[in-house]
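1st attempt posting a full record on here, be nice pls
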Amino acid sequence: MYREEWIGDFRFVEYEEFQLDRPSYLIVGLPDAGLVSVIAASHIIKKLDAVEVGGIDSYYLPPITVIHQGVPRPPIRIFAKDRVLIVFSEFLPPIQTVPSLMNALLDYAMRRGIGNVICMTGLPIPNRFEKETLRSFFIPSTKGALEMGKNAGIPLFENGYLVGPYALLLKEAMRRRMNTIVLLTESFMEFPDPEASAKNLELFSKISGISIDVKELLEQAEVIR
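the predicted structure (as tokens):
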């Protein structure tokens, strides 16, 4: 099975047949502060034993090909399992491509009938080494997303600003009235932060009801500490 379609400037390729159960969730994992999003996405792929079902490419992306088990793959990969679709990239796309990529991702999610989008990112703080307990917040795109976060007992991020791909995705989701939540946990800026990733995954589990074991991430955090 091989299928491809262009959405804007991006070619979405599917090389495995898949169907998501409902309610479904799209997780977007791009490099960010403390690599929080990338670590979380990689961990959920591993723990759910998600299958690589496709990828995203474009003439506007850097000349990168991912080699997995000897097979060339698109630079941005797509994994699926049960109710979850994960879009995973180990590099940050060029800033000028980010608006069209975020639009394309939401278009793809709508075509796939995905009802909810979750982004898990870091909230850099200067005294991270001193913090024993990390605080987490959420930003919703709709009233439905607001209720999801409140029902999970997550504090609302009330004042401040968000910068980068997830800010653009959140604004576009608001325009489309798509349920989207950005989870933010205090983190390192420059160092990988598996503890912040673990906290975000625990919150995702509360929102979705999908249990993700984060023991391994917490052990990695202890080593870093």
